Amino acid sequence: MESPRLRWIAALLVGLLLAASQPPLTLWWLLPVGIAALYVLWHRAETGRRAFWTGWIAGTAYFAGTLFWIVDPFLVEPEKFAWMIPIALPAMAGGLALFWGAAFALAWRFGRTAWSQPMSFATCWMIAEALRGVILTGFPWAQPGYSLVNVPPIQMAAFIGINGVTFLALLAGAFFGAALMQGKVATRAIFAILALGIGVGSWGIGTVRLAEPMPPRETPLMIGLVQPNVPQTEKWHPDLRDAQLADLLEKTRDLSVRGADVVIWPEAATPFPIAEMPDLRATIAQRLRPGGVLLAGGIRVEDRGTENQRFHNSLLVVGSDGSLLDSYDKQHLVPFGEYLPFDALLTGLGLRAVISLPGGFSPGAAQDRVLSVGDLPPFGAMICYEAIFPHEVIDRSAQVDWLVHVTNDAWFGKVAGPQQHLAQTRVRAIERGLPVARAANTGISAMIDARGQIVGALALNSPGTLLQTLPPRMNLTLYGRYEEAGLILMLLIAIYSTVMVNRKS
Predict the structure, then answer these.
(1) Which of 124, 129, 251, 384 does the annotation list as catalytic?
(2) Quick one: pLDDT at residue 403?
(3) Nearest CA among 81, 56, 145 for reference residue 423
(4) DSSP secondary structure letters along 364-424
(5) d(CA 465, CA 227)
(6) What is the pLDDT of residues 95-131, one digit of tens each?
(7) Catalytic annotation on 184?
(8) Which of 30, 388, 489, 493 has the most crowded Cβ, counting Cβ within 10 A?
(9) CA separation (Å) from 85 to 113, 138, 416?
């Protein structure tokens, strides 16, 4: 019997290896290797309790290794928030790891036979990951499947979404681990074939989709992306905001002169309430070409001056005549960032939201995320954090031609956070078969095609503009039509197979 201490050390190391499979390193091959290694450690757990600790320790290391960027928001105003850093990262990593620990313990309970164990392991883990994306408003960041963003298997997201991609990866890794643990040659061979079949099959399907031709747009649309690169410590500083606005306007003029039909500013690009300032909109209109449109991230104030006054994190549409054509208010806000859950209780304990706004932001009313503006092809709007929730992007019945993602990734640090956020946005393109125009404050602004490939991008932490022709959309994907139905079907088949194998044992 091996020492529990060695098992805990091994679990911690494997969790860190899995973290290295995610952006920015994106060593994708560590994903199946790490899953297989965790399967071996789980398989050797003598009790459900030890199985739990195996999953929890590995999960804590994994989430600490992928989410270390969450300390950056607390450094924007360190005199107010730095004291929370030693609490925030361990609490976040350890809390999310509870999902893994519970999954490993449950899998140990139901994996009774050699044949049911890998299926039980992968299924319970996947259910835990799916729940992580919805419980307490959800936080599906760093889901294992995103490790595959640069290789063909990620194209399976067009059929079964990122959850389905993750499940296939967990199954392949579990079968790989089971092949290492079996004594019988025939059983080992079957598990190895299953692991290889999932991997090779996914790679092949992904390769075919990447080679699928896309017809060009009948009417080209030139999109200009603005990346101001304003550090969060300077953003909206009273002495700097006029200069920041002047920079946005100059970049807008430059893009319009070069032929941009649409110019996109990032999330909360300016503190000035554009919707309430006709003079500012007129100034913006002078920087647009005739018929041009600006999509600007900004604050919208509802019922100003009344007891019902609310602030919204919005995407505002300004036309070349200076009119406000439309707007979208962010619906899925960041807990502790844009608002404080249980406000009265936590404020009394001395906690507050990172955003310095009385009461924080208010979520937009439930509304269609699709905006139709003039002659522009209809598009779906995503503001920052919303892009990490695949089922919230647009309604399945929506007639959409492209997606717009505005974000301020200055909150996410200068290393892992922005690159992980970009990877998730790329997968949203694959899932829906739609191109994405992404404007970020400090990076990474990019034009992404309908297969999640980056057509053009601006470097992280550098100012600039990007002018690109909007890529064409692809045919409606299976995921776009049925969303998580494919994953649910896969899970039901896996659960049924596990139950039947256990009954025959």
Answers:
(1) 384
(2) 98
(3) 145
(4) PPS---EE--TTSPPEEEEEGGGGG-GGGSS-TT---SEEEEEE-GGGGTTTHHHHHHHHH
(5) 6
(6) 999 999 999 999 999 988 888 999 999 999 999 999 9
(7) no
(8) 388
(9) 44, 21, 17
Burial category of 2 from C-beta neighbours within 10 Å (exposed 0-12, middle 13-18, buried 19 and up) = exposed
Mean pLDDT, the chain, as a whole number?
A: 93
Band of pLDDT at residue 505, cut at 50, 70 and 90:
low
Question: Each residue of 123-159: pLDDT tens digit?
Answer: 999 999 999 999 989 999 999 999 999 999 999 999 9
Distances in Å between the Cα of 463 and the Cα atoms of 216, 437, 443, 444 are 30, 17, 8, 10
State the catalytic residue, choosing from 124, 251, 267, 483.
267
pLDDT tens for 374-390 read 999 999 999 999 999 99
* CA-wise closest residue to 296 among 278, 271, 321, 333: 271
Catalytic, 384? Answer yes
Strands 222-227 and 436-440, sheet pairing: unpaired
Report how far residue 173's alpha carbon sits from residue 165's, in angstroms, rounded to the nearest whole number: 12
**Candidates 330, 386, 431, 483; catalytic one:** 330
Give 4-21 pLDDT, tens digit per residue: 789 999 999 999 999 999
Burial 351-379 (b: 16+ CB within 10 A, else e): eebbbeeeebbbebeeeebbbeeeebeeb
Q: Is the model's pTM score more than 0.90? A: yes
Q: CA-CA distance, 243 to 57, in Å (whole number)?
A: 48
Terminal C-alpha separation, the chain? 26
CA 162 to chain centre: 10
- Choosing among 3.40.1190.10, 3.60.110.10, 3.90.79.10, 3.10.20.30, the CATH entry for 222-473 is 3.60.110.10
Count of alpha carbons within 13 Å of 63, Cβ hemisphere only? Answer: 26
CB atoms < 10 A from the CB of 47, how many?
Answer: 10
pLDDT at 319: 97
User: What 3-state class would DSSP assign to 223?
Assistant: strand
What's the average model confidence in pLDDT over 61-89? 88
- Asked if 330 contacts 317 with a C-beta cutoff of 8 angstroms, the reply is no
Nearest residue to 441 (alpha-carbon basis) of 138, 253, 222, 233:
233
CA nearest to 157, candidates 123, 210, 211, 206: 206
Q: Return d(Cα 149, Cα 22) in angstroms, integer.
A: 9
Task: Report residue 109 as tokens.
Answer: 């309970």
Q: Where are the beta strands (DSSP E) in 191-267?
A: 222-227, 262-264
As beta bridge partners, residue 295 has 264, 317
Largest CA distance in the chain: 78
Compute CA distances 122 → 42, 168, 378, whole Å: 11, 9, 39
